[in-house]
């Protein structure tokens, strides 16, 4: 052997990379792939560098693939490789009708009122999966036509959030760049006799509609309508004095679908981007329909809450004779215990109640990232839910289960003692412990502690109480103790005592570091942890018997954010 060609080597590496990505929901770990290849093909050890480079390259390539494709390819190589991967249980998203490779255009259309939250991630990710499956185009369309509800920072934060989610955006469109386009199409609708300018009191107009009656302006001639639209555009009307209305069917059984507002005036607040240059604003249904057509959307995925909007928008498509995109409406999601409402959060940040958009009590994408919830876990979660039309309640436990599959194999283990109590140890001169950084990866090494007299450690208040009560305890990887009424007396270091029912406690050395873990409920767990190397900053670790946490800083004290159990 030993004569494997580079191309074959890349093939082997690719195979293990695909399998590794299948195991971890789409993202391959090149180091794990390297280990696996060298373990299974020892003759390649002399070419470890080449294998490592190929693994890096393959990981990049595979990461850009939709998860379904990864599963398909792994299954094609060998169905046995699919065992224990996430492909097994996963629901594969249904194919989209009318989708042709290279021709699919889809969009994510958030309002820039703040950064993205968990609720947004479903549609953002579903679109991404389909665009990747069909090698289509992903448009991020910022729908900023309600000047009242814009946070100028959102124009920057939303693309950052999408990037963090692993979403590839091909084109960004900002609706406030397109006012003239909307005015133009309003004029065209007037020409078709499908729009009028109404100067009734809003309530009067609405009431008439409910009774299937036309307001006095509905029959105006296109000339009259044009003159009134010009007056709106040249500021001859103030806010609420006139609106452009799109005609539908006043007899439509669903009152929400009867005539809807296309353009309105807002002159009380400037627009963060366009200032006071434009005061006539399109309403969502109007700008969405026109843009969906002009941008060539082939498939639109949206929540069921948009069903009436779809019906309204279809009128505009029909009037112009435009081909409609395929529309899909997924069920609503209630996200319990998450603070999502952008306006509430925005106010809370201003008042100082929240530290920022990434405050870990919030349901924002930023807060998830800060806590150590991985983007892949969020993606797996939504792929699992799929395009279901039934309403669901977001299951945090499922998200955590997906996340654990990703963080557990890589998170280093450390001791963190909350509610720390000092415990003196007697009967021995010196103590030494070696605990693996990761129980499944001995190659990662150990945390080595040497305790010199006077021997003292910290254990939690609960563990100390248990020790006193039972009279025995084993300090993990350190020693066994007997309670003498005041202190722990050394009784050896045989971990078999655990079989005899002795309880295990974790501990922190007295030269450990202060550690604060911010919990998602806003509380803070304070204690002492063993020292962490600086390379743990930004990573998720497991504080044994406490849970996973993302480390923000390791010095002068450890600050961390709780991820999950
Ligand atoms: N800006 C709208 C929203 O986020 C657009 C959604 C859509 O048209 O599907 O709700």
Helix tally?
Answer: 16
Biggest beta sheet attributes: 7 strands, mixed
What is the annotated CATH architecture of the largest domain?
A: 3-Layer(aba) Sandwich
Strand content of the residues, in percent?
15-25%
Number of domains: 4
CATH class of the largest domain: Alpha Beta
Name the overall outline. Answer: elongated
Q: What would the CATH topology of the largest domain be?
A: Rossmann fold
Distance between the termini: 47 Å
Query: What is the mean pLDDT?
Result: 95
State the helical fraction. Answer: 25-40%
Radius of gyration: 30 Å
- Strand count: 27
Structural class: alpha/beta
Superfamily (CATH H level) name of the largest domain: HUPs
Strand order of the largest sheet: 12-25-26-27-23-24-13
As residue ranges, the low-confidence spans are: none
Ligand catalogue: glutamic acid
């Amino acid at each position: 052997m030993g004569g494997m060609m580079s191309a074959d080597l890349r093939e082997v590496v690719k195979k293990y990379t695909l399998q590794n990505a299948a195991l971890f929901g789409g993202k391959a770990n090149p180091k794990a792939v390297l280990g696996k290849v060298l373990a299974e093909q020892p003759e390649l050890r002399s070419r470890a560098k080449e294998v490592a480079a190929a693994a890096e390259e393959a990981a990049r390539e595979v990461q850009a693939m939709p998860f379904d494709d990864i599963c398909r390819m792994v299954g094609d190589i060998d169905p046995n490789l699919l065992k224990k991967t996430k492909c097994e249980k996963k629901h594969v998203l249904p194919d989209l009708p009318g989708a042709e490779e290279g021709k699919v255009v889809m969009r994510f259309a958030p309002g820039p009122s703040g950064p993205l939250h968990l609720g947004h991630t479903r549609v953002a990710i579903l679109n991404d999966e389909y665009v990747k499956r069909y090698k289509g185009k992903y448009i991020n369309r910022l729908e900023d036509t309600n000047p009242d509800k814009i946070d100028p920072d959102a124009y920057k934060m939303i693309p950052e959030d999408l990037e963090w989610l692993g979403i590839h955006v091909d084109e960004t469109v900002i609706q406030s760049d397109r006012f003239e386009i909307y005015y133009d199409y309003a004029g065209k609708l007037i020409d078709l006799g499908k729009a009028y300018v109404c100067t009734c009191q809003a309530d009067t107009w609405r009431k008439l509609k409910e009774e299937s009656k036309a307001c006095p302006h509905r029959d105006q001639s296109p000339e009259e309508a044009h003159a009134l639209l010009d007056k709106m555009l040249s500021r001859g009307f103030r806010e609420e004095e006139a609106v452009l209305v799109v005609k539908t069917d006043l007899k439509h059984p669903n009152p929400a679908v009867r005539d809807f507002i296309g353009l309105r005036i807002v002159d009380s607040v400037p627009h963060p981007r366009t200032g006071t240059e434009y005061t006539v604003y399109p309403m969502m249904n109007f700008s969405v329909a026109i843009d969906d057509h002009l941008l060539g959307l082939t498939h639109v995925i949206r929540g069921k809450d948009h069903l009436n909007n779809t019906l309204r928008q279809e009128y505009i498509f029909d009037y112009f004779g435009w081909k409609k995109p395929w529309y899909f409406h997924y069920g609503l999601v209630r996200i319990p215990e998450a603070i999502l409402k952008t306006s509430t959060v925005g106010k809370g940040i201003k008042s100082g109640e929240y530290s920022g958009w990434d405050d870990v009590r919030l349901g924002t994408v930023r807060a998830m990232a800060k806590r150590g919830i991985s983007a892949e876990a969020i993606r797996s979660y939504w792929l699992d839910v799929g395009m279901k039309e039934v309403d669901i309640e977001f299951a945090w436990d499922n998200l955590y289960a997906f996340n654990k599959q990703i963080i557990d194999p890589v998170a280093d283990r450390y001791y963190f003692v909350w509610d720390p109590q000092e415990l003196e140890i007697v009967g021995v001169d010196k103590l030494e412990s070696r605990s693996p950084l990761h129980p499944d990866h001995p190659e990662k090494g150990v945390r080595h502690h040497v305790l010199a007299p006077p021997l003292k450690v910290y254990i939690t208040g609960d563990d100390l109480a248990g020790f006193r009560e039972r009279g025995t305890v084993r300090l993990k990887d350190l020693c066994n103790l007997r309670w003498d009424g005041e202190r722990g007396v050394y009784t050896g270091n045989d971990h078999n005592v655990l079989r005899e029912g002795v309880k295990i406690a974790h501990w922190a050395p007295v030269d450990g570091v202060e550690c604060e873990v911010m919990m998602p409920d806003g509380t803070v767990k304070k204690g002492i942890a063993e020292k962490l190397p600086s390379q743990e900053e930004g990573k998720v670790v497991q504080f044994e018997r406490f849970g996973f946490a993302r480390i923000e800083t390791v010095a002068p004290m450890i600050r961390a954010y709780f991820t999950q159990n």
